[in-house]
C-alpha cells in the first residue's frame, strides 16, 4: 500500500511507506519555492540520511510555466489541482499564499491522506480548523512553521516543547516591513508617508503595502500564535488590529523623550478573571517600549518573540522573519518531520483546541498608555486633566509638563487601565477648553504594570 | 497488548496504548522532580487533553523515602531498578543525574520498549550512542530537552526545526554558575576565588563547584549540541575544555578597556577544508566578546545560545537555563511528546549520526586572541614583539601601548589564528628579555574574523 491513505476516518497515522522515496508536490515557485527546489537538490543526500529515505520532487505547480528557467521544466505544471490529486504524491508543500483556491487544494490533499506543509499564514488564520479537521480524519500531518516569523523555530516550541507548561503571554515583532519603517522614522525623524516611500524604493515594502502597514499580516500571525499557545481556535476576526499609518513624528519624538521607541507588536495574553475563568486577548498595535527592552534593538528583517510560561518563565526567540532561504529552511524542517512520520508510521501533533477559551474584546484589554497633550499654559490645567483621569478610574503613573511661549505640552503615562476607560478619558479631555490638541495616544508595553 | 513492546528488534514504533492512561515512573525527586510531581498534579486535566489520555504517576524512586513529605508516600520506593522493570510502566522520567547506576536503569527501560525522558547531560555526553541504540532496537523514544539550557526549547529546534538546513555554528552561554561569577567579577573587579565564595554563599555555586567552574558541565552540553547539530557522535573527550579559575581581575580589566566582557562560551563549529572535507570543532573556554554583542547582556541564571545555519541565517534562543520549575517545563514538554507518540503509535526522531564527521583537535582551531604583556618601556619593544608574531604567521589586528614609570603595557589583538601557532608565539614572547610578564592571553569571539 502506498502512503496515500484514502477514506480512512480513524484518525490513525498513515502506514509506513517502506523503502521507496517520499514524493513531494510543490505548489508555488517564487522566492521561497525556488530556494526549496535548490535546497532539495543540493542537500538531497543529507535529507535522505535524516529521513531514512530520499525525497523526490514529482511536480511544481506555477501560474506561468515559461517563467521558471531555474527549475527542471519537466516538473512544471499550471494545473495545481491535478498535481495535488495525483496518486503518487505523499506530501504537498504550499508556498503560493492566499485563501482561494489554495484552501481547496490543501483540503483535497489532506482528505486524501497527503501530509501538508504550508507557509500560508492568511489561510491558517482563517481556516486552520477546517484544515486540521481534514488532517485528523485521514491521519495526515499539517505543519506550518514557516507561516510565522520565517526561519525562527517558534511554532514547534509552542506546539511541542511547551506542551507540558501553561503559556501566559506571547509578545513579538513579527512583521519586517513595519519594523523597517518604524526604525527608520525613529532614526530620521521623518514622517510615515515619506518613510514608506523610501521602504518601497529599497524593496522593504510591497507595491501595495496594506497587508503589512495596516497590521493584517501581523494579525494573521497573532491568531496562529494565540491558537497554539492557548489551545483555542483564534481567527483573524478575533484579533484587535491597528496599523502604523497613524504614527506621527510627534509620537516618535515623544517616545524618544521618554527613553522609549515605537514598535508594531503582536500580543497574545491569557487573562484570568477573579473567579478563575480564563480568556484570551489578542491584539496588534504600535506601542512604546523602553529602549532597554530586548525587542527595542530588533531591526530590519529580523523578528523576535517573547514567550512567558508559568514554569519555564521568560523565553525569547530571535532570527530572520522573512526571505527566500530562511523561509525555505523552516519549510524543509517541516518536510523532514512529516517525511519521518511517514517512514516510521507515526504522525505529528494534531490540532489542540480543547481549552476553547473566550476571546476578550479589546475594550477590556488592560495596558499602560502614554498621552501627549498640547494645552494652554496656565495654572490649574494639570489639576483639571488629572480630575478627568480620576473620574474614569484611570490611575496616573507619571506626568511631565513643559512650557513654551503661550502653550505647553503635557505628557501623561498611566498605570494599567482598560482600553474602554482610557478611550472615554481621552474623549473627555479632548473637549476641555484649554486643551488645544491631543497630540498622541499610544500604548506602553514591556514595563511593569 | 500493553505499551511495553519487549524484545522487538524491528525499530518500528511501539503500538498504540488505546484509551488507558500513560504510566510514568519518576527517578529522582529533588528540586526538579518535586516540580514535575507538582505540575503533573496541577495540570493533570490539561496534560490529558493535550495527550489524548491521562498521565498516571505509578512510582517515584528516591534515595531516602522519609525525606519526601511533599509527594504521595505510597508512590515512593528506594528500588529504582525494580521500578524501571515494572510491567505497568510506559515512560521513565529520569532526573537523578550521574552516570552509574542511572545508565543501567535507562538502558533497561529502553530495551524493554519504555520511552525515556531525561535531563542527564553527563550521561548523554558520554553514552548517548548506547542509549540511542537501545531505543532504536525496541522502538522506544529518547528525549532530553532539559539536559541543555534548562527551559529553553533548543534541542527540539536543532533536532527537528533545522533538520532541513545545514547548521554551521552554535555558540552560547550554557552554565549559570560561571556566568554569575564572571558577571560579578566584571562588576566589582574582585578576584576569582573571592567571587566564587560569594557565589557559593548566595547559592549560585555548589559546595564542590568543579563541574561548573572547570567547564565540565558546559562541555557535556557542548557535546550534546554538537552531536545534534552536526549529525555526528561527539562525546566529552572530544571537547576542548578550559574553566574560568584562571581568569584574573587583570583579564577582566583588559577586556573592559577594550569595550569587551568575558563569558564562558560553548562553541561548536563545522569547518570545511579547502578540499571540501568537513570536520567539527567543539570547545568550551572563557572568551572576550564585545559589550554590544547580545550574549554580553545575558546575566545570572539566564542562558542564551546563538545558532547559525546556511539557509536560516542567525538564530538566538534565550531563557532560564536552570531551576526546578523551568527544567520541569522542559521535561514535561518531552513527556507530552513521548506520550502522544504512544497514543498514535508513532515515534520521535532517532539518533542522527550519519555524517560521522572527524573532530578537529584544538591546536587546529582558529580564533582571534587578545594578549596583554607587561614590558620594559624602551624603544624597539613593539618591533621585536611584532617580529615574533610575523615569524609564526599570526597576523596582528590592533596594538595598544601604554607607558607607566619604567614599565609599559602592550595589548595586542590578533586576526584569526590557529591555536598551536598562537601558543608558540606566546611561549617565545614570554622568553624575550624585555618582556616582564604575559599578563593575559584570551580568545576573542563574536566579532568578524
Automatic annotation (TrEMBL), chains A, B:
InterPro entries according to UniProt: ACT-like_dom_sf, ACT_dom, Asp/hSer_DH_NAD-bd, HDH, HDH_cat, HDH_CS, NAD(P)-bd_dom_sf
PROSITE patterns listed in its UniProt record: ACT, HOMOSER_DHGENASE
Alphabetic keyword roster: Amino-acid biosynthesis, Metal-binding, Methionine biosynthesis, NAD, NADP, Oxidoreductase, Sodium, Threonine biosynthesis
Source domain of life: Bacteria
UniProt-annotated catalytic positions: 221 (proton donor)
Entries under Gene3D superfamilies matching the protein: 3.30.70.260, Dihydrodipicolinate Reductase, domain 2 (3.30.360.10), NAD(P)-binding Rossmann-like Domain (3.40.50.720)
Domain ACT: 370-443
Positions annotated to bind L-homoserine: 206
Cofactor or coenzyme needed: a metal cation
Pathway: Amino-acid biosynthesis; L-methionine biosynthesis via de novo pathway; L-homoserine from L-aspartate: step 3/3; Amino-acid biosynthesis; L-threonine biosynthesis; L-threonine from L-aspartate: step 3/5
Entry binding sites for NADP(+): 27-34
Record EC number: 1.1.1.3
GO process terms (BP): methionine biosynthetic process; threonine biosynthetic process
Any GO molecular function: homoserine dehydrogenase activity
Record-listed NADPH binding positions: 121
Catalytic activity field: L-homoserine + NAD(+) = L-aspartate 4-semialdehyde + NADH + H(+); L-homoserine + NADP(+) = L-aspartate 4-semialdehyde + NADPH + H(+)
Record-stated family: Belongs to the homoserine dehydrogenase family.
Chain's role: Catalyzes the conversion of L-aspartate-beta-semialdehyde (L-Asa) to L-homoserine (L-Hse), the third step in the biosynthesis of threonine and methionine from aspartate.
Name listed for the protein in its UniProt record: Homoserine dehydrogenase
Species, as recorded: Actinokineospora spheciospongiae
Amino acid at each position: 500500500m502506498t502512503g496515500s491513505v484514502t477514506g480512512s476516518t480513524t484518525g490513525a497515522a498513515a502506514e509506513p511507506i517502506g523503502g521507496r522515496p517520499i514524493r513531494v508536490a510543490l505548489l508555488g515557485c517564487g522566492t521561497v519555492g525556488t530556494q526549496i527546489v535548490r535546497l532539495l537538490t543540493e542537500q538531497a543526500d543529507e535529507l535522505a540520511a535524516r529521513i531514512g529515505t530520499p525525497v523526490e520532487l514529482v511536480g511544481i505547480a506555477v501560474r506561468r510555466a515559461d517563467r521558471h528557467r531555474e527549475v527542471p521544466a519537466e516538473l512544471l505544471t499550471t494545473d495545481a489541482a491535478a498535481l495535488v490529486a495525483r496518486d503518487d504524491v505523499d506530501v504537498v508543500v504550499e508556498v503560493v499564499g492566499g485563501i482561494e483556491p489554495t484552501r481547496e487544494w490543501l483540503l483535497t490533499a489532506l482528505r486524501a491522506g497527503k501530509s501538508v506543509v504550508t507557509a500560508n499564514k492568511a489561510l491558517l488564520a482563517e481556516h486552520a480548523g477546517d484544515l486540521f479537521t481534514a488532517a485528523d480524519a485521514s491521519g495526515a500531518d499539517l505543519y506550518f512553521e514557516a507561516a510565522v516569523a520565517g526561519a525562527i523555530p517558534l511554532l514547534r516550541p509552542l506546539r511541542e516543547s511547551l506542551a507540558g507548561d501553561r503559556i501566559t503571554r506571547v509578545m513579538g515583532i513579527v512583521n519586517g516591513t513595519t519594523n523597517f519603517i518604524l526604525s527608520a522614522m525613529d532614526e530620521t525623524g521623518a514622517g510615515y508617508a515619506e518613510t514608506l516611500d523610501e521602504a518601497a524604493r529599497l524593496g522593504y515594502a510591497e507595491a501595495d503595502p496594506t497587508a503589512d502597514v495596516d497590521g493584517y499580516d501581523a494579525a494573521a500571525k497573532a491568531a496562529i500564535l494565540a491558537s497554539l499557545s492557548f489551545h483555542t481556535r483564534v481567527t483573524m476576526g478575533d484579533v484587535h488590529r491597528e496599523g502604523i499609518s497613524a504614527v506621527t513624528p510627534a509620537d516618535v519624538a515623544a517616545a524618544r523623550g521618554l527613553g522609549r521607541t515605537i514598535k508594531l507588536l503582536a500580543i497574545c495574553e491569557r487573562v484570568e478573571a477573579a473567579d478563575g475563568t480564563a480568556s484570551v486577548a489578542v491584539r496588534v498595535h504600535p506601542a512604546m517600549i523602553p529602549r532597554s527592552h530586548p525587542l527595542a534593538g530588533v531591526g530590519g528583517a529580523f523578528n523576535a518573540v517573547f514567550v512567558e510560561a508559568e514554569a519555564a518563565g521568560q523565553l525569547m526567540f530571535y532570527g530572520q522573519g522573512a526571505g527566500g532561504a530562511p523561509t525555505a529552511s523552516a519549510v524543509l524542517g517541516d518536510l523532514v518531520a512529516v517525511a519521518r512520520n511517514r517512514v516510521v508510521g507515526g504522525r505529528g501533533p494534531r490540532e489542540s483546541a480543547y481549552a476553547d477559551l473566550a476571546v476578550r474584546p479589546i475594550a477590556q484589554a488592560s495596558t499602560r498608555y502614554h498621552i501627549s497633550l498640547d494645552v494652554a499654559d496656565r495654572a490649574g490645567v494639570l489639576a483639571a486633566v488629572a480630575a478627568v483621569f480620576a473620574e474614569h478610574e484611570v490611575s496616573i503613573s507619571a506626568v511631565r509638563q513643559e512650557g513654551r511661549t503661550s502653550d505647553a505640552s503635557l505628557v501623561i503615562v498611566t498605570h494599567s487601565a482598560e482600553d474602554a476607560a482610557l478611550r472615554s478619558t481621552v474623549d473627555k479631555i479632548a473637549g476641555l477648553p484649554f486643551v488645544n490638541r491631543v497630540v498622541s495616544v499610544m500604548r506602553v508595553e514591556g514595563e511593569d504594570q
